[in-house]
Amino acid sequence: MGMTIGEKIIARAAGVSEVKPNDIHTVTLDRMMSNDGTTHLTVDMYHNQLKHPKIADKDKLVFIMDHNVPAENPKTAEAHKKMRNFAKEHDIALYEGQGICHQIMMEDYVCPGELIFGADSHTTTYGALGAFGTGVGCTDFLYAMTTGTSWVMVPETIRFNLHGSLPEGVYARDLILTIIGDIGANGANYKIMEFAGDGAHSLSIDERIVLCNLTVEAGAKAGIVEPDEKVVEYCKAHGREAVHMFKSDDDAAFCAVYDYDLSKIEPVVVRPDFVDNFALLKDVKQEKIAIDEAFVGSCNNGRLEDLRAAADVVRGKKIHPGVRFLVVPASKAVYLAALEEGIITTLMEAGAMVMNSNCSVCWGSCQGVIGENEVLISTGTRNFKGRSGHRTSKVYLSNAAVAAASAVAGYITDEA
Fold first, then answer.
1. pLDDT tens track for 135-176
2. 60, 61, 194, 282 from 34: Cα distances, Å
């Protein structure tokens, strides 16, 4: 029996020729990433719970401050200080003020075929380059950090065959939100979501990032796009070599197979308070739902293509006087590229507040927090109750163009 992409990656990491779903294997990790959301907790466990603590391979570790940057209170400042000191003591790569962890990992580290643990649920992002990225908690990360290994139960794989191309004005975010709406927030629990077909290969790397990033919102253990020449080119452009370009065998077994015609995907708005509370924009905009804030950013939708889409919408217009419009580039590199292209100028001239690269409104802890009964239209990853502020607030999810148009109109729409 053949193997899927994810199974081949696990087999490589386990040093075996074959794996099958529900097998449990000890694996050697290619890389580990932790951010300021939990690193201080891992550091405390390292010092207080281990008899003979040691770092297995500091060159496989990356620490990134992105959730609350810069620190908004003394408690966060102390957590950051602990993270800095530990990284300096053990010569661990540390990023501060450079951007969101997953964007930095994509820009500087991830290679196809790698098995990567991240202390953040959206580590599934790395499948955009044909890697197996998955989120883990502090205890699992501590074990991985000190041994270089972990265990993995091989997930089953769901195959998504994508055909054709997305229509103008429809984005990869609409596609993945449609898929999650179809299969449900538990539709891929502990499964690998594999994307392939001519439609998958028509997507840019940035668009593939959007797909894989949100697979965890359907419960997936990992999301992987079948790698191709675009992956090779991306790695080369970022100073890396694409070595392990795995594809699923013709006789690989999938627990389910879905086919999507990309030409039929429409703009989507996800209603509060669940990521699978799917609706079509054409229906939602008839309600003229007033908003207090709009947000373009996050590890899902803060890249150059997203900022460009938002700028195209607001060019020559003004943000509604009753709306706060926050724009947050996903990394310093994205910010600089947007500056060079004039995107930042266009957004700011329209009235947007452009923030430093960090998790910002999506995280709901340091910037753009929404108040009681306020409504947010967001390109963030989640819309759970209280995710971006007060428990009575409401978060709607959309693509960047819709968020920008809504910021201009004052209500949810694509007609700025």
1. 999 999 999 999 999 999 999 999 999 999 999 999 999 999
2. 11, 8, 25, 40
Give the list of residues 6+ apart from residue 320 with CB closer than 8 angstroms, or none.
Answer: 407, 408, 409, 410
**Helices and strands, number each (H, E), in the chain:** 16, 18
SS3 279: strand
Q: DSSP class of residue 23?
A: -
Secondary structure (DSSP) of 183-252 = H-TTTTTTEEEEEESHHHHHS-HHHHHHHHHGGGGGT-SEEEEPP-HHHHHHHHHTT----------TTB
User: Which amino acid type is present at position 267?
Assistant: P
364 neighbors 347 (Cβ within 8 angstroms) = no
Rounded to whole angstroms, the Cα distance separating 59 from 82 reads 19
Residue type, 125: T
Per the listing, tokens 């191709």 go with: 228
H helix intervals, 227-384: 229-237, 281-284, 298-301, 304-314, 332-341, 343-350, 360-363
Q: Please tell me the distance from the alpha carbon of residue 359 to that of residue 213, in angstroms, as a whole number.
A: 14
Ramachandran region of residue 415, left (φ > 0), alpha (ψ -120 to 50) or beta? beta
Distance, CA of 20 to CA of 6 (rounded, Å) = 10
| Residue 288: both structure tokens together | 């003229």
Model pLDDT for residues 354-397, shown as the tens digit of each residue? 999 999 999 888 899 999 999 999 999 999 998 988 999 999 99
Whether omega before 70 lies within 30 degrees of 0, making that bond cis, reads yes
First-to-last alpha carbon distance for the chain, in angstroms, is 53
Q: Which residues contact residue 349 at a Cβ distance below 8 angstroms, ignoring those fewer than 6 apart?
A: none
Q: CA-CA distance, 30 to 114, in Å (whole number)? A: 6
CA distances from 133 to 42, 51, 106, 183, 220 (A): 19, 30, 11, 21, 11
Fill in the DSSP letter of residue 76: H
Tell me if 360 sits within 8 A of 331, measured CB to CB.
Answer: no
Which two tokens mark 143?
């074990």
Give the dihedral sign, CA 268/380/295/336: negative
Please, how many CA atoms are within 13 Å of residue 121, restricted to the half-sphere of its CB?
12
Partners of 280 in the beta sheet? Answer: 268
HSE of 24, CA atoms in CB hemisphere, 13 A: 2
- The rounded distance, in Å, linking the Cα atoms of 228 and 247 is 9
